Amino acid sequence: KGLIYPNQDVPDDVEAAFGEVFTSLFSLFRLMNGDTSIVDLVCTTVIGRLLVVAFVVLANWAILAILTSVVSDNMIASSRELEMEDTRKEKQIVYERCVTRLRDLFESIDADHSGTVSYQEWEALLDNPVMLSELADATNLSRA
Question: What's the pTM value of the predicted model, to 2 decimals?
Answer without folding.
Answer: 0.53
